[in-house]
What we know:
Number of strands: 0
Number of helices: 3
Helix content: over 70%
Order of helices and strands: HHH
Distance between the termini: 25 Å
Strand content: under 5%
Structural class: mainly alpha
Largest sheet: none
Amino acid sequence: MAKLDLDPILARKEELEALLAEPGRQDIVQLSRELAELRPVTDAINAFHAAEQEVEGLELLLEDAEMRELAAAELPEARERLSGAELALPLALLPKD
């Protein structure tokens, strides 16, 4: 999968959460709606990052003689989760009609 810059999406979610925490906002409905639309996307991004980190961690453990067997046993499932997250991410990024 090509590397996408997903940080602006995650940053926007954090910004919206901070704005919603401010008292007396007049645009709460608009901000809440935008956050609700963004949440499935950020959930997919976070799932992708978690799966990616899990695979990377297990691959590093393959180099450790004591942990090699455990890592080798868990790695296929972790790669499957990463593959699923890679497939789900572009779908989550599609604009809603």
